[in-house]
User: Fold these one by one.
Assistant:
Number 1:
Amino acid sequence: MDKHYLTPLFSPKSIVVFAGCNADSAPANSQAELLIENFKSGGFSGPLTYLDIGMSGTLSDLVKSRVDLAIIALPNEQLCAALEVAGSIHCKSAIIISRGVNASEAKKMQDISKTYGMYLLGPNCMGFQRPAQHLNASTLGRMTQKGATALVSQSGAVTNSILDWASSNGVGFSAVVSLGDHSVIDIAQVLDFLAEDAATHSIVVYLENIKNARSFMSALRAAAVSKPVIIMKTGRSQVSAEATATHAGAMVASDEVFDAALKRAGAVRVQTFVQLFAAVKCLSARYLPVGARLAIISNGGGPAMMAADWVKELKLKIGKLSIEATADLLPKLSNLASVTDMIDLDESADAHHYSSAVNACLASSKIDGILVLMSPKPHLDINGISQALADLQPTISKPLITCWMGDDQVASGRSILNNASIPTFRTPEAAVDAFHNIASFHQNQQLLHQVPSSLSELAKPDIEGARILIENILAERRKVLTEMESKALLSSFHIPVTRTILARSANEAILVANQLGYPVALKIDSSDIVHKSEVRGVALNIHNATGVRDTWLDMMATVSRLKPEAKINGVTVQNMSGKPDGRELYIGVRTDAQFGPVISFGAGGTMIELIADRALELPPLNQFLAHRLIERVRSAETLGTWRGAPETDRESLERILLRVSEMVCALPQLREIDINPLILDANGALVVDARIVIEQTVPAHNYEHLAILPYPSDQETEWPMRDGNRYKIRPLHPHDAEMLQTLVRNLSPESRYFRFISSMRELPERMLARFTLIDYDREMAMVAMYPERTANPEGGFTVNEKIIAVSRYVTNPDKSSCEFSLLVADEFNGQGLGSRMMLSIIDVARSKGLTSIEGLVLAKNAGMLKLMRSLDFKIQIYEEDPDLKLCVRSL
C-alpha cells in the first residue's frame, strides 16, 4: 500500500468547494473570493463541484463518488456545518481556510473530522499549492513556479514573503503548505508526506512550535534520510523559567536542545531569514549533500579574502587544486592570475578564464563545492561570464554558488544565472553561508545514521537497585539527592566515584578521615545548597586531624551564616582524587519540556557558567556519538598531551558518557544530573562531585520519556531450523544495508516480483535507505541472521552472517493498525522461516498496543496466501486492485 494516506489531500483527483452558495454566486467573504480566484487561475482539471451547506438534492450522487478533497472557505460560524456536509458525502480529506478560530471551535472541527475519518488541514491556515498539479487551494496569491523544493510554514506572513521573493529569483516549489495554529494535520504529518513525494527533492520549513517531539523527530528523520531538510525556527531567545537545581538545568536553554535534536535528525537549522532564502536558492538547484571543502574563484583578492574569512568562521575548509591540476590550469589563465589557496583570476579575467577555473575545480577530487566571485570592472563582459557559467550548468556535478557583487552593473548577469538555476548572492558571506547549509546536511547525516543500543555492551548495571533507591527518596517526598545518594546511583551504573562518607560532627569527620587516609576533602551536605563553593562549603587537601576539625567547625559556622534557611545534613569526607595531572570536566543532564533528557558535556570546575564550554546530544548514545560529543567542545584540546601532562584516557570518558546515557534511558524519574568535576587523566576518569534531581513520573513504557527510541536489543532471539541449523532473529540495524541488498540481488525474478511487484534487480539507493534507517517508534523490521561457513584454503572455516529473511510492519496513521511485508531467501523456503518471521513482528506489534495487522499479497502468490491462512489471516478482496488480496488479522 504505497500510496500515502495524505495523497487525497495534497494530490486529489476530485474536489468540492464550499465558498458560497454556488459557482456563480458571490463568495461568502474576502477569503473565499481570493481562494476562488487563485483556484480558478491554477487550472485544476479534475472533477470539481461547488456546494452550499444547505444543499441536499445532490448529496446522494456525491456520496457514491467519494470525493478526495473538500475546500472550505466560509464565515467561522458556518465551518462546522460545512465540515459535517463534507463528512456526509464521504470526503477523504478537507482543508479549512479561515482566521480567528479559537481553540474550542477548533476542537469541535477536529472531532468532526475524526468521526468521519477525514484528514483535516486547518483551521486558521492559508492552504497549499501544488504547481505541477495546477492546484492552488490557498489564499497565498498566484501560483508559484514549479520546482523540486517543498516549503512548509507555520506563518502565513512568512509564506507570502518567501513566495514573493521566489517569483523574482527564479525559484520554484513542488509544494507550498501553510499550517495554522490549530491545524489538525501537523508539521510531522506533512513531513511524512513530503518524505515519500517523488516530486519533492528537498524541504524547507519555517517552524514556530511542535506538538509532539517524538512524532516530529520520527517524521524529520524519515524525511532527512534521503532529502535535504532546512529548518528555521523562531523563539531562539526564549529560555525556561522553571527553577533548576543543577548547572545543567541553569545553563542549557531549550533552543540549544532544539539545535541538538535537529542535528541528530539529520536536518540543518538556519538562524536568519537571509539564510533561509539562501538555503532555498541552493536547494532549488538540486545540490546534493557534499563535504566541507569550498574552492574560491574570484577576479579580485579582496572579495576572495572576505569569503575565506567566513569559511574559517564557519569551520569549513578552502578547497585547493592538486599540484598537477594547478600546472594544467595556469597556462589557460592570465599571466597575472594566482592559484594558491584561492584562485585569483585577476581583474582582466574573461569568460574563458572563469570557465577554465570552474572546470578544473569540477574535475578535482579534493574540492566539494565551488564559489565564483565577481566584482564589476570597467569593460568587463559580465553577461558573457554569466552565460558561460549557465552553459556549464547541465554538466555540473558539484554545488556551484556565485556572488556577483554590486547592483546595477551586474543585474542582468544575475538574471542569466537565476534562469539557469545557479544560486547567486550579493555578498561573499551570504554565498559561503549557503554552501555551509549544504555541507552541514552532509555532516548531520552521520548523526542520523547512528542507531545506538538501549544499553552499552559493558557490564550490566544494577537497574533494580537504582529504582529502589529512587523510590525510597520519593517516598520521603524529596527530589534532590544528597551527594552520597547521587554517587550511589552513579555507582549502580558502574561509574567510578570517590569514596564519600557523611560526618555529622567534627569528631566523626576526624574518624572518617583517619579511616580513608589523608589528604581528604570536606564538602557541605545540603539539598538546599546548589553551588557549595558560593557558601564556602568546599575545602580541599586537608592533611591531618587538626585541619579536619578546624575546617569542619569553620565550614558549619560560615554556611549557617550565609545560608541560614538551609537544612544541613552534615559534612561529607572523601579522598582527594589522586590525579594531579587530571583535567576537570563536566557531564550534565537536563530534561527539556519537549524533547526529554539531553546530555551536556564540557569543561568543569567552579567557573563552569563563565567558561560556557559545552556541547549537547540527545540520548541514547553510542561510542560514535560520545566521541563526537567530546570533540565538539573547546576543552577537547586539553585531553591530549597538554603542558607537560600526559594524554588522557578518552575511552574511559566515553564509557562514562555511555553509562549516563544508560541511566537516562532506564530511569525516567531523572530530571537533572550534575557531575562536576569529573577528573580525567592517563589512568582513567573519576567523579568527584555529583548532584541528581528526580521527580515522580507515571510508569513509562517503550521509552516514552525519550525523543529517540533506542535500538530494541531485547528483541533478539535464536531459533532452530528443520535441517538442524540455527538462526538468530533480531531487529534490523542501519549497517545491515549491504546484506539486505545482497538478499534482494540473489532472489529469483519471481520472488522479487511477488515482494516488490516490480522486475527491479536490486533496491534503489533511496529505497534501501528507507528500508534500513527505520524509526523503531513507528515501525519494526526483523531480520533472520544465518551463520554461513566458508572453508579456508589453509584449513578451518570462516563464519560470516547473512540475512536470509526480513519481516516488517509500519504503523498506520490511525495508530491502532499496521501494514506488514515479508521476504524469505529462495534457498530457505519450506523451513518454517516465514511463519516464525511473521510471528516475530506480530508479537512486537501487539506489545506496542496495535490491534490489527494487514498487508497486500498478489492474488497469484499461492504460497504466501497459504501462509497467511495458516496464521489466521482473513483473505479479503482489495477493491482498488483485483490483482491483489488484502490479508487482515486481529492482534
Number 2:
Amino acid sequence: MMAEPGPRPVYICAEWEIDLVRRELRSAGELVPLGGRAFEILAELVQAQGQLVTKKDLTERVWRGVFVEESALRVHIAAIRKALGSDRDMLSTAVGRGYRLLGTWRIRHMDTPQRSAATGLPPSINIPSASFDLIGRSAEIAHLWRLLSAYRVVSLVGPGGIGKTALALEAARTPPTGFLADRLLVELASLSDPRLVCSVIAGVLGTKLEGEEISPDSIARAIGPRPLLLILDNCEHVIDAVAQVAELVISRCSGTFIVATSREALRIEGEHVYRVPPLGVPPEVRLEPAAASAYSSVELFTRRAKALGSSFVSDEENIGAIAAICRRLDGIPLAIEFAAARAVMLSPPKIAALLDDRFKFLTTGRRTALPRQQTLRATLDWSYDLLPDHEAWLLRQLGIFAGEFQLDAVIAAAGEGIGDATGQLSRLVAKSLVLADIRGDSPHYRLLDTTRAYALEKLHAAGEYPDAARREAKYYCRFFAGAEADSETTSQAEWLAVYGRHIDNVRTSLDWAFSSGGDPQLGAALTAAAVPLWVQLSLLTECRERTELALARLDPTAANGLRIRMQLSAARGWSLMYGVGRAREAGSAWAETLQLAEQLEDRDYLLRALWGLCIDQFNNGEFQRALEFAHRFATVVADAGNPVDRMMADRLLATTLHYLGDQRQAYHHIGRTMSRLSDLAAKPQVIRFRFDLRVSTRYFQARILWLLGLADQALDVVESNVEEGRISGHALTFCSVLGQGACPIAFLAGDLDAAERYCTMLIEHTERHPIRLWNVWARAFRGMLISRQGDLAAGLPLLRKALEVAGEARYLPRFLLPLGELAACLGEAGDVSEGLATAADALARCEARYEGWYIAELWRIKGELLLLPGERRSTISAARAFDRAFELARNQGALFWELRTAISMARLRMSERRPADARNVLASAYDKFTEGFETADLRDARAMLAKLGS
C-alpha cells in the first residue's frame, strides 16, 4: 500500500486528503471509498483551488469527448457529497453553472520509505522475531501502513496492554512489497532518566559521535537522508525528550519516518495520532459458538489457552463465558492473555465469575515480559505512578462512575478545591486513562472497565469513596430533576441520548445510598427523579424493585417526604401493572397515590392515579368501576385540562366501553380522540401515562373498527400502527401495538402469515426488552397460531404452558382470546368436556365482570363445542348458544362476531337440511358489510351463500 517512488502531490484541508497519484480520498488517514468517475471530478475541483468549474468543463475533462446526460454528473456529485459526510457543504453548487470545492487546500509533496537505501546495501533491521502470531490485527497493520504513506510521524496511542508495541513490531516485520528502508526499534521502557533518550537512540542507530555531545541535533545530522523507519517504543515516561528528538529528526531528515508507541501523543508538528482499538468483542446477545469464536478477542483467548495446555470444549457454555470475559476486559489483549493463562486450571465460566477480583486473579504473565506487563495491576500501576498528584486524585474520583459521564459530572464528583478539572480531565484523556466520545453537542467520557476497577480500588484505599459516592448521587438528583419535563419537548430517541446512557451510574449511586453507611433519603429522592429512565427503557421489574426499596427506607416526615412517596407510589403502581402475577397488587399503590395527590393538591398526580386505578379495575375485572374512574378523569380535565388530557379522557372512555362491549359508544369516543390528535405534538407523550398516546390510541381504534365490521379500515390502521410503533422506539408501547392490535386482528382476519410475522416480532422484541408479561402472551398466541395452522399436537401444549406461566395474569382482558382459542382447540383435539369447561369458566368470568367485548364469541365457541361428536353433543343447546351470541353481538354493534355466529348457525341449519334458514341467517349478517370482503370469514360466508343459492 505504499506510494510510487518519488514525491507526489497530496491536497490537504483539515482532516481531508486527496491523493492524486494514488487516487485516494482520505479522512484522518482513513480511506473513504469513492468511485473512479467521482474521484476524477473531485480531482478537477480540488486542482481549481476554489474556482468555479463549469458543468461543461467537468463532463469534457472527465468523460473525454463522450456525450453524457447532465444527470450522470449529478449522480457522481451526490456520491462525492455522501463521501464527505458531515462536510458535504464543502462541495458548493452554483445553480445552473457548475461546482466548486470550498476550503483552504494546501499541497504537500509526499515521499515514503519505499525506495532503495542510499547506500545500495541491504536494509538494516533490528526488529525481533515474533514469538507468537499476532491475532486480530491485520486490518490495523494495513491501516498503519496507509498512514505511513501520508504522514511521517504516526503515534500509536492507547491504554496499557492494548497492544501498541505488538502492532508496531508486526507492521515492521511485514512491510509492503518493495520496501527497502532500514527498520530500527528503540526500546525506551527501561529508561528512568529522560536525558538518556538521545544516547539510546544513537546506540540503536550505530552512530559514533566522538567528541560531540549526543543531542537531537547531532542525531538528526547523523541520520541525514538515510531511508529509515524508526520505532520509538514506550515513550510515555520520557515523552518530552522523545518529542524533542522526533520533531527535529522529522524536520531535517527527509527519508525518516517514525512510529511512536505511547499512552499519550507526542504533540509535535506533522504527527498523526492513531488510537489503537481493542480487539473485537461479541455483543451481549447470545450467539452460536462459531459466530462468537469469529471475534478476535475470543480467538485470542482460545488460542492462548490451548497453547498453554487447556483442553476445554468449545461449546455454547464455554464460548459464552469467554465472550463475557472479553467484554469485561474491554477487548484488551494483555488482560485477555492473563485470563487465558488461568484456563489451564479453571473452566471459562469459573474465570468469568472470578473477574470481580481481577487484580489478584490475573497475575500470570509471561516470565520474559517486562515487569509492568507481568500482572494486570502492574500494568496499571505503571500509568498511575506517572501521574502528578492532582491527576491521580481525579482519576480515583472518576472510579465512582460505572458508565459514561459528562464534564459537569466530573466537576460535581470532584467537589470543591479541584481547580482546573477540565484541564486535568483532558490530560487523563491524552494519557489514555479516560476515553472521550466527542460526537454530538456534549462530549461524554468513560473509563475502561479494568481501569475503573483499579481507580475504585484506589478510591476505597484512600478512604475517599463515601464522599465521592454522595457527590455523585446528589449530582444525578439534579441531573434528572428536569428529565420528565424534557420528555415533553423532545423525542424519545433524543431523550435517551441525553439521559439513557447514565443508567449504570444511577444504579451504583442507589446501591451506595441504600447500603450500610449510605443515605436512604438521598436514595429515595434519586429513585423518584430517575423513574422516567426506567419508564423510557421499559425496565419494569427494576423500576418496581427500586421503588419498593425506596418506599421501605423513606422517612415521610423529612423535607419533601410526602411528595417523594407520592411519586414512588405512582411508579410502583405502573410497574406492577405489567409484571407477571403482580398486576392485582397495583391497586393499593394507585390508591395511595390518589390519597397523597389529593392531600398535596397535585392535579398531575391526581390524573395519573385516576388513570392507574381505571386500568387496575380492568385487571381486576371490575369494568363498571373502571368506567367510574374514566368518567371521574374526564370530569377533572373537562374545564382546565390541556388537549392531551382531554384526549386521554376520551381514550380511557373508549377503552373501557370497548371492553364492556359497547362498541358503538367506544367508536364515538375513539373518534373524538383521533380528532384531537392534531392537538398532540409530533413527539411521543410517554412519561405521564407511561406509553405513547399517539401510537397507543391507534391500536384501540383498530380493535373497535374490526368488531364494528370495518375490516379494511382496521387492517389499514394496523399496518400503519406497526410502523408508528417501531419508529416510536418505546418498548412497552410497541408491545401493545403488536399484542393488542396487530396479532389478534391479523389472526381474526385469517391472515395467519401476517399473524405469525407479528408474533415473531413481539417475541423478539420482548426478549430484547425485559417485558415478561407480553412475552408470555406472545408465546400463548404462538401456541394458538400453530394450532390454527393445523398442528394441534405442537400448538396446544405451547398454549396451555403459556397460560399456566401467566398465572393470575391470564385473567387480564388480553388473555381472553387465547382462552377462547384454548377451549376451541381442546374440542378439536377430542377433549370436548375440558373445552366446554374452559369456555364455561371464561363465560362466567366475563358475565361476573361485565367484560362484554369477547362474550359473544365465547357463546359461539361453546355452541361449536356442543356440535362435536360425543356424549355432550346437543344441537338444541348449540342453537341456544348461537342465539345468545347473536343477541349479544347485535346489541353491542359487534358485526364481526355476528358474522362468525351466522356462519356457525348456517352450518348447523345446513346439517339439519334447512338450506333456506341457513341462507337467511347468513345473508342477514353478510349483507350488513360494506368492506373487508377478502377477509377469511367473509370469503367463507360468500362461498356458503353461493352454494346455498345453487
Number 3:
Amino acid sequence: MATRDALAPYNAKRDFKRTREPRGKVAKKGGNSFVVQKHAATRLHWDFRLEIDGVLKSWAVTKGPSLDPNDKRLAVRTEDHPLDYGTFEGSIPKGEYGGGTVMLWDRGTWEPIPGKSADDLKDGHLHFILHGERMKGEWLLVRMKGRPGEKRENWLLRKIDDAEAGSGDTLVDRSLTSVLTDRTMAEIEADREGTQSLPGAKGKTFAKKMAEAHAHNAEVTHKSRKSKARSTQGPLPRFVKPQLATLVDAVPTGNDWLHEIKYDGYRALIAVSGSRVELYTRNGLDWTEKFTPLVKAIAELDLPSALIDGEIVAFGENGNPSFSALQSVLKRGHGSQREDTPFHFFAFDLLSLDGMDLKPLTTMERKERLEALLADAEDPIHVSDHVIGMGEKLYRSMCEAGQEGIIAKRIDAPYRSDRTRNWVKVKCTRRQEFVLIGWTKSSARGRPFASLLLAQYEGKKLIYKGKVGTGFDADTMESLQAAMAQIAVDEPPADVPRVEARGAQWIRPKLVAEIAFAEFTGEGRVRHGSFLGLRSDKPVKAVNPERAKKAPTVETSIKISNRDREIFESGQTKGDLADYYQRVAPLMLPFLANRPISLVRCPQGRAKKCFFQKHDGGTFGKHVRQVPIREKDGGSEDYIFVEDAEGVLECVQMGTIEFHGWASRADADRMIFDLDPDEGMDFAKVRKAAEDIRDHLSDIGLVSFAMLSGGKGVHVVVPLTPGHSWDEHKDFASRFARALSEAEPDRFVATMSKAKRAKRIFIDWLRNQRGSTAILPYSARARAGAPMAIPIGWDELGKMEDAHPFSIDDAEALIERQKALKGWGFATQALPAL
C-alpha cells in the first residue's frame, strides 16, 4: 500500500478552498478500478488512471487512446491521484493547477495479464487487460528512455492486436459524452455549480442564463477587440530566423504581390506573452534592454503568445524613418517612459499565435491575423501598411519622399527562414553594408580622419570596395575614431591598390557600416558614397555584395479554354470569371487556402446543370490538391483543397463558379450563422437581425463580422482559436441559435422547415457541423447577375439595400476597399461553453 506521502505532490498543487477536486487521502483497501478523464486544460488531453496500492497512478495521454495497435500514444506520467478522484467531473477554476473542464470519459476494472503484476511498473512496463465501457482488451504501457536533464517520465500507451482492436481515432472521435452524466464538455463547463442548470430553461430564461454564464467574457464587444486580461499566459515563442528579401532591379507587377514601405531601421522579432516581452535582432541577439520603452508599450497590449516580425525605426528631421537618427538615439540613450520614446515598431508579419505555427500560411493571411492581433495598438506600435498591385506607384511616391524604397511580397507564399524571391526589395538609392578595414588621415584641423576604407566578403575573401568620406558629423567621427583606434593593426586585411593605400591606417575587420552610394565603378569601387551608420546587428562574415536580380514576374500559367463562353445571363463569360478570380485571389486566399472545399461546377453555364463536387476524380490539374479525411464509417476520402491562385484558376477552368469551405483546417476555426430570410422579407429586417446577433455574441465575449452572402441573406462570422472539438462546435452553435429562436419565436426559427419559416429568419447553424460548408468570402455565386459574397464592415451594413451589391465586374472596387476591411474575419478568441 502507498504511504501518505504518495499524495503529497497532489495536495501541494491544489488550493482546496477554490477547487472542488477531492482532497488527497490514501485508501485503506486496494482494488482494481481504472478511469479515464477527458481534460480540457491548457491543452486537451485524456488522463488515464489505474488503481494501484490505494491511489490512482496517472498518465496524461495527449491525443487520447487509440484502438490501432500500430499507433503508440505519448503518455506523460503525472502525480498520483486519490481514489475519490475517479468520480470527479466538473470545472477546475482558471488559474488553479489543471484549470479547465474534466469529463469522466471511461471507467471499469483492470488486471495484469497472467504471469504479470502491477510491480512491473517499477521496471518501466505494464501489460494489462481493461474491462471498461469504452476501452477493452489488452493494452501495454512502456516507459521511454529518458534524456539527460529530462524531468518528466514519458511512456507510450498502445493497444495490443486482439478482438477489441480497431483503426484510426474512432474511439476518441465517437465517444463525446460522459459515462457518468451523458453530458458533453460544453454542458459540463456551463454547469459551474456542479449541477445541470441549463436543461429545461427556454426562451428568455435560456438566453439570460447563457449570458450570465459568460459574464466574465463581456469585456470584448463589437466596439473594441481589445484582448481580455489574461489570467494565464502561454510560453514565450522561441526566436526564428527571419525571412530576407532579394534585391531586384524593378518592381514586380500584378496582383500576386503586396507592397510595403522599406523601413530604414533595425529588423526585430518580438516574442510576447502578456506582460512578458523579448526583442531579438535578425541574428537572434537579445536586445530587449536596448529598446525598453518599446518593450513596455508592447507589454501594455497584453497580447497572447505571439512572435511578431517587424522593423524598429526612429524618424529624422524630415519626418522619414532615418537609420542615422536611430543610431544617434541609441548612442545618447533614451527615456524610460513611453512618452519619451523616440522608437517606433512597424510590424509586418506574424510567425506564431497562441502556440500555432503560422509560417505555412499565405502572406496575406498572416498579415490579416497580424492586423487583427494589433487592432488596438497605438503609437509607437504600428502595423505596416500595404497595397495590392500598384507597386510602381508606391515606389515612385517613396522615392519622391526621399525614402529608401519598397518591399514586395508574394501574396500566396509561406514564410521561409531564408533569403527568397518571394520577398524582393527595390531601392530608391543604392545602400549596402560594408566592412571597415581602415581609415585615411586628414590634414584638416579637428578632423580625425579623411575617409573610411570599405570591403565586402566574396566567398571567404575580403575584397576592397573603395572609400567613403561624407555623411559624418563631429560626434560620429569622434566615436568612430575611438572605436577604430582599439582595433588598429599594421597589415591590411584586404588587397588594396598601392595608390589608394597611401596614408592608410588599417584595422581588424570588426565593424560593419551602412553606406548609401550612387553606383559601383567599373573597378568595383563605391561612387559618391555617404556614411549612414554602424550596424551592430549584422555579423561581419555576412557582409556580401548585393547584386540586383531581374524582377520576378508571377503570371499564372493556367490556360483558360472557351473564354468567350457565356455562363451568366447578364453576359459575363468564363474568361470574365477567370479574370475576376485572378484579381481577387489575394483577398480570397486567407479564407480559402488549405481548407477542405466543395465546388459548385456549372460547365455549361449557370442556367444549365450545376452540381456540388468535394472529391477529385483526377480531372483537375496539379495545383488542385487532395487531403485524406476520415469519414463517419471509419474509412477516408480525398477532399479538394487549394493553396494558391493557380489552384483557384484550375477549378474555374473545370467550370467552377462557387467555392464553399469547411469551418476548419485541422481544427474548427470559425463559426458561421447564416441568416436565411423568408421569401420577400424586407432586407432591413435581415440587417437588424445580424446586428442583434452581433450584440448577443458580444455579450458572451465573442467578436463577430458580417458578410453579404451574394444571395438574400447575411452571414455572421465568428473567428475562433482552434483547439475545440467538432462536437463542442456544433453544440455551441445549436444552443445559441435555439436560444434566440425561443426568446423571439415570432422573429427567428432554428429549424430548416419551410413551413415554420414563414415571415421569419432561419438562423442556419448547421454550417458548423463536421463536413458542412459555407460560401467563402469573395466567391462568385451561380445566380443571375454574377453576384459574389462580400465581407462588409458593421458600419457599412446599415447602408446596404440587399445582399448582392457587387458582381464579378467589380474586382477593382473590391481591391480598393480592402484597406477599410483590414483584420476582417480574424480574432484571437476561444469558444466559451453554454
